[in-house]
Design brief:
Blueprint: H1 2-28, H2 31-43, H3 59-85, H4 88-111, H5 118-136, H6 142-147
Helix pairs in contact: 1-3, 2-3, 4-5
Length: about 150
Amino acid sequence: MNWLYLAILSYFLFAVVFVLDKVLIKKVISPLNYVLIVGGLQGLVIFLIPFVNFKISNNFIIVAAILSGIFFVLGLYLYYKILSKYEATWVAPLLFGVFVPIASLVFGRFLLEEKLDFFQAVAFALLVLGGAIISFGRQYDIISILFKLNDSG
């Protein structure tokens, strides 16, 4: 039963992070500057390479790692941009309850050739449905939000 306490604690910590992100972006720093700081700090890991037993097996891994980093920073910027304009209680369930599970399912299926059995598919559908109900039950229109990301204000 310890897993239940860990799951509750992890969701509590996620909520704290989402609220702190919202406060930082709204009152302290712009989304672009925040992404540059976070991305820059993550890029510092390159300086740890001489201290570990690091071997490159092929060039595909290097290209995949670089693309992964670029897409992560781009996604982080879009997340912070949306978070700067809308409530964290709406953005977080939409992103982490709808978009991330769907992307994980698609990439897992096509890149890793994973398949869900019946009960896993039902659990997945309930997870996404719950995130959608929480998010789309609000007054926001997701399509107009995605097209207005470049607006200032």
